[in-house]
């Protein structure tokens, strides 16, 4: 029996302030805010609830979203931008939706720790990046600015999914 419960996560109640901050600091703050938002959507739920596909026929679950964002951050910041030879965390050619389809309550605690570790690794990979630095991905030149904005956008979209999943699971809104 799985008894692990997602821990509570601190997050400022207000959106990141940024009018007087440099753009890169704003982007970093927004990424951190969205990361903590996803984890707050999970806080207090047990592993079975986290892995629940609460909105059929969708394969989305809160645990699947955590797994997906682990791979997304790794893919953009470490694999594509830095060229690190680190494997995908969940994606496999024979199972492209494994991050969602294979979300298992038994691995929830480990998946959350992998997520937090990947966020730390991505932060380290982006520490000295300049927004105008570029890299090539699928024959396209992409700036670090675009990549960072895309990560924020990806979280914003999936945090909307997380809102709906959480509301269906236990009625909680506005976490």
User: Which structural class should the secondary elements be placed in?
Assistant: mainly alpha
Mean pLDDT: 94
Question: Span from first to last CA?
Answer: 27 Å
Characterize the overall form. Answer: globular
CATH topology: Four Helix Bundle (Hemerythrin (Met), subunit A)
CATH superfamily: dinb family like domain
Order of helices and strands: HHHHHEEH
Strand order of the largest sheet: 1-2
Based on CA atoms alone, the radius of gyration comes out at 16 Å
Provide the helix percentage.
40-55%
What would CATH call the class?
Mainly Alpha
Counted up, domains total: 1
CATH architecture: Up-down Bundle
User: What's the helix count?
Assistant: 6
For the biggest sheet, the summary is: 2 strands, antiparallel
What share of the residues does DSSP label as strand, in percent?
Answer: under 5%
Task: List unreliable stretches of 5+ residues.
Answer: none
Can you count the beta strands? 2
């Amino acid at each position: 029996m799985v008894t692990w419960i997602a821990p509570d996560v601190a997050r400022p109640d207000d959106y990141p302030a940024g009018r007087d901050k440099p753009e890169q600091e704003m982007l970093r703050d927004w990424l951190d805010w969205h990361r903590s938002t996803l984890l707050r959507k999970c806080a207090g739920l047990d592993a079975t609830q986290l892995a629940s596909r609460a909105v059929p026929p969708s394969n989305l679950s809160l645990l699947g979203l955590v797994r997906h964002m682990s791979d997304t951050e790794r893919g953009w910041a470490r694999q594509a931008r830095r060229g690190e030879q680190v494997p995908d965390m969940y994606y496999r050619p024979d199972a492209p939706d494994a991050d969602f389809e294979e979300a298992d309550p038994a691995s929830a605690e480990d998946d959350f720790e992998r997520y937090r570790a990947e966020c730390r690794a991505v932060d380290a990979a982006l520490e000295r990046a300049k927004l105008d630095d570029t890299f090539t991905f699928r024959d396209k030149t992409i700036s670090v600015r675009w990549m960072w904005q895309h990560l924020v956008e990806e979280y914003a979209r999936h945090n909307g999914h997380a809102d709906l999943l959480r509301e269906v699971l236990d009625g909680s809104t506005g976490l």
